[in-house]
Amino acid sequence: MSLLPDTVRQVDALVAGAQSAGRTPSLLVGVVRDGVLTHLATAGEHPRPDADLQYRLGSISKTMTATLVMQERDAGRLALDDPLEKHLPGTGVGTLTLRQLLGHASGLRREPDGQWWERAEGADLATLLAGVSAEKIAYPAHRAYHYSNLAYGLLGGVLERITGTPWADLLRQRVLEPLGMRRTTYAATEPFARGYVVHPWHDTLREEPRTDTGAMAPAGQLWSTAEDLARWAAFLADPVPEVLAAGTLTEMCVPVSISDPDSWTGGHGLGLELYRQGERVYVGHGGSMPGYVAALAVHRPSRTGVIGFANSYGFRTGGLGGLALRTLTTVLDAEPALPRPWRPAATAPPTEVDEVGGRWWWMGAPLDLTWDAVTGELVAHVRGERVSRFAPEGPDRWRGRSGPENGEILSVLRDRSGRAVALDIATFVFSRTPDQEP
After folding, report:
1. Helix (H, G, I), strand (E, B), or coil: what is residue 151?
2. Could you tell me which Gene3D superfamilies the record lists for this protein (predicted)?
């Protein structure tokens, strides 16, 4: 679905203004809707951007590392609350859990030992682990949000130890190939944009090194294109079950830590950054490596996302990430997603379901129970404000699958004649009329 001409003009103006003000040689921002890259706004000529030009992803790589961890969790080969010691013994930080590392809630310091890893050639896993001691813990877990690149180097090591496969090979086999992301690679592959530092006084360019970060690769090594990153944005909006279950991705979007507790505008789930913009919450991640910045933000309810690349590290401050969020908000404000069309049910509900449909009451508050013929679920509407869905789990027993009653049990209570007379939802008993006592 193409954007409307006025929306295109707004997005193009945002990108052109950002490229000029940010003094970046090459800038692109793409809008993704319903799984398709619907518009690509570009600015700059060094080089001229297009959908197949590679830039460096930086820390967006972490979202894919986290996906691999969740695959292993779903397969039963690890638990999120496993201590690191279980998979990488002897590090000195072994009490930290995989969940804490994924959500930047571990208190682990930001970087590994040695030179600034983003500009230096990386070491192997054994060398990385040899430099990890108890001194790498800045403060106790969950005391505060503290972003840690080192955490993702360690998570990559966990994946390698469990699977016996190097992180890059595992990622290619499990994520990139199934999603058709053929231009997302470990090292730069032509055509790619060179990355620069723009001199602050006379606008000349200094090309930055393109390092192999070794064991820290799971934190920020990858290269990709607008076309491929759009595929990843589409996956975060609506995952391919062969790669990751929808429920697992939803779990990754639940906050583990809040990055700004005074304003609550940002946080981190299991490998995904969370951005609150007014009444909307976006998920995604930013990325930076010497000479490059990248951005990814997705509004999952509307299946709309924005991706972005620039080839100047100086564009980072208040730059590409903010531009991506402004662009996404602009698109959603201008073109809100249409509701899915209503369609009549092909069949009537089963007798036992039909019997419990309709209005129920608790303490003068109404609850309307309907049936979703597509999913086979009961849908509970409380005052039209709270909606919970229940999946069948046995005779007269339904388990909450979403909404406020997620995980709770709805039981149908019957009289001696077998007539349904009440509903018990997590011990709250609803009757057929407001005059009845449960």
Report:
1. helix
2. DD-peptidase/beta-lactamase superfamily
